[in-house]
Design brief:
alpha/beta; ten-stranded mixed beta sheet; three-stranded antiparallel beta sheet; 13 helices
């Protein structure tokens, strides 16, 4: 079997997705997700101009060799653009291999370690009544664990609260507001109210989204301990891995980190010193199934669990790959799942299912996801950016 062609499909059924389709001389095709939110065209160019020309004539079954060739052979290693492009190839080749075997991908990863995959959903509100309504809506959808994000008094637009975002900003980034002291004062009160309303048993999560210093993160983790969080996510920019030593020494609140990480080197100190409890990288941004499985095996040696990044900007192709990994690895923790628009579901028909707050990849050979190229073409690319964040005095801050 040989690869005869590969192409990149860019579509925007509600938001932009980059998909690689690899074709073989035996008619078996594979899909990979290369979406990099806000920088999609950079990955399209990387794939189209530099990776796709290398694929025809190669053996699709040589997944590890192809991965190493794309990573080491380019000389310029790591980074989100490079790793998203490599991920698309890696996932598409796993899709092909599993289809040839006539098995769902998780079977090639060692088979199922559980019957289904627990997820968490997103709830948010500008104030407590709106937040409570959002939590109830997620519970009605079947979610059994909830990420809680709220407005901050005095701020107009903040991360994670949809209704505070100015959607009329056009092709330029939305500017959100930030005030760390106000946030640190208000958030424990929010979780106190949520616990009083929904009781002690509902798993609650929160994303600080890289905005705190290690000392501020340590304070927040300590202040949230009475509310028994499932985790505090991205409490401080973790490029400074050593900063987590301070956070860890001051709080027992579980910590989750890694959605912006691209290789195992980003985790070396965090895992080796057991400074976190969950690794958060996505298949799409970490180079694919192959390296992410290796990361999970490394983390397992330290009793650290998985929590694959799963927002709406990971396409159903990337989501399916994540669910197959979730079902197979022993140290699974939880899967983020925000769901998709009807238009996205139509462009990417899939076998995976969501029932009672849990996902299952299905039993179709391969990933169990297809691409309707005609429908994809009906949704052309639309320039879009992630927001940026500024302090009250106008200083740019971490988003």
């Amino acid at each position: 079997m040989k690869i005869v062609d590969a192409k990149v499909v860019l579509t925007s059924p509600g938001r932009n997705f980059v998909t690689l389709k690899i074709e073989t001389d035996e008619g078996v095709t594979g899909l990979g997700d290369a979406t990099l939110n806000g920088r999609e065209l950079a990955v399209v160019s990387y794939l189209t101009d530099h990776v796709v020309p290398l694929l025809p004539g190669t053996d699709p079954h040589r997944i590890e060799d192809t991965w190493q060739s794309l990573y080491r052979g380019a000389y310029w290693r790591r980074g989100p653009v490079t790793m998203a492009a490599i991920a698309a190839v890696d996932v598409a080749l796993w899709d092909i291999k599993a289809k040839v075997a006539g098995l769902p991908l998780y079977q090639l990863l060692g088979g199922a370690s559980r019957e289904r995959v627990r997820t968490y959903g997103h709830a948010s509100g500008r104030d407590l009544p709106e937040l409570f309504d959002s939590i109830r809506a997620r519970l009605d959808q079947g979610y059994q664990a909830i990420r809680v994000q709220t407005g901050v008094p005095g701020l107009k637009r903040v991360y994670g609260v949809r209704h505070t975002v100015d959607t009329a900003a056009g092709p330029r980034p939305v500017v959100e507001d930030w005030d760390t002291p106000a946030y640190l004062r208000s958030l424990p009160k929010v979780f106190d109210a949520v616990r009083q309303e929904f009781g002690p048993d509902l798993p609650l999560l929160h994303d600080a989204h890289h905005r705190l210093t290690p000392m501020q993160a340590a304070r927040l983790g300590k202040d949230l301990e009475p509310y028994d969080l499932f985790w505090l996510e991205d409490c401080t920019p973790a490029e400074n891995q050593e900063g987590l030593r301070l956070v860890r020494s001051h709080t027992t609140t579980p910590l989750a980190i890694g959605e912006v990480f691209n290789t195992v080197y980003d985790y070396k100190t965090l895992i080796g010193e057991q400074l976190i409890d969950y690794v958060r990288s996505a298949v799409t941004h970490f180079g694919g199934v192959s390296p992410l499985r290796k990361l999970f095996d490394y983390a397992a040696q330290y009793q650290i669990r998985t929590a694959i990044h799963g927002p709406e900007d990971i396409s159903p192709v990337g989501m399916a790959a994540a669910i197959h990994l979730d079902l197979a690895v022993h140290n699974f923790g939880i899967q983020e799942y925000a769901g998709y628009t009807e238009a996205t579901e139509a462009v990417f028909p899939h076998a995976y299912t969501f029932t009672d707050g849990h996902l299952h990849p299905g039993e179709e050979p391969g990933l169990g996801v297809s691409l309707d190229e005609e429908r994809a073409a009906a949704h052309p690319y639309e320039a879009a950016y992630l927001p940026i964040n500024r302090l009250q005095d106008g200083t740019i801050h971490d988003w």
